[in-house]
Amino acid sequence: APEPSSLGAALLPEVASNANPHFIDSKHVVFNNVAAPGNYNDDHVALYDMDTKTTTTLSDGKMAAMQHMRSKRGESEVVVFQQLTETVDNDAINDENSLVKNQEILSKTIIRSMFRQQDGTWKQFDVTADDGFTDQHPVVTIQDDGKAACVYQHGQMKKIDVPSYVDPIMSYRLVGELQLRTFDGNTWSAPTKLFDIDADHQPAQYDLFMRGDTVLVGINMTDSKCASSTFTYASKPLDSPAVSSVDEALKPLNFFMNRS
């Protein structure tokens, strides 16, 4: 295998293996900044400026943040991420024998967003509130005018029956809904339910994009054994609560390649 140095200059020096870096534009990379191994509470979503070689933390507070997603169109930029609602006991979360406790700790999450302002600073808007439910795996898209849409999983983590060969941690799945919220430039809307999520309808992959005044969300659902899957898309106008959905009307590859 080639030496890392032969592959080019390092853009993000000394980052964790789960940094999950994404370019947000030609000069900035957003990534999971795991500051100190073993300390879960200092894990944050951060922005690295390749010109100044400086790092700006986007998620605030003492709670861990992860699972970021970003979108940019024209001069509009947004980053969304999920963040724990309380600090955690690092010893408890690192105990491999405390699977139930581990799931209890990691399920206390909300979704937050950061929008880049005209002066280059970032402003936070909470997508969801701390209501005792789990909000996770956000995906976001934005338009030139600053309007945005975010889809995410909302519900409760529950233990379901899985085959013996499946990793025990995979026996905990979210049961609830796939929800959509839209941003009008100032506030996030109330949630719109798109699809049910249960043991036999688990979201393997989903994405969305906006065209004019309509949001289109595509999702690939699998059963609990990952033995079968179906592709569905939902369409929602920004000015209407009505949602229409169609099964297998688009090829998943074509849909996910056209995200904005």
Concise description?
This protein is mainly beta.
Q: Describe it for me?
A:
This protein starts with 21 loop residues before the first strand and ends with a helix. With 260 residues, it is mainly beta. It has helices at 90-93, 99-106, 252-257, and strands at 22-23, 28-34, 43-49, 54-57, 65-73, 76-84, 109-116, 122-126, 134-142, 148-159, 172-183, 192-197, 202-211, 214-222, 229-237, 244-247. A 4-stranded antiparallel β-sheet has the order 1-2-3-4, with no helix packed on it. It has a 4-stranded antiparallel β-sheet with strand order 5-6-7-8, with no helix packed on it.
Strand order of the largest sheet: 1-2-3-4
Task: Report, as a whole number of angstroms, the end-to-end distance.
Answer: 35 Å
**Beta-strand residue percentage:** over 45%
Q: Helix content range of the residues, please?
A: under 10%
Strand/helix succession: EEEEEEHHEEEEEEEEEEH
Structural class: mainly beta
State mean pLDDT (0 to 100 scale). Answer: 81
Number of strands: 16
Unreliable segments of 5+ consecutive residues: none
Biggest sheet descriptor: 4 strands, antiparallel
Please tell me what the overall shape is: globular
Draw up the topology in text.
Blueprint: E1 22-23, E2 28-34, E3 43-49, E4 54-57, E5 65-73, E6 76-84, H1 90-93, H2 99-106, E7 109-116, E8 122-126, E9 134-142, E10 148-159, E11 172-183, E12 192-197, E13 202-211, E14 214-222, E15 229-237, E16 244-247, H3 252-257
Antiparallel strand pairs: 1-2, 2-3, 3-4, 5-6, 6-7, 7-8, 9-10, 10-11, 11-12, 13-14, 14-15, 15-16
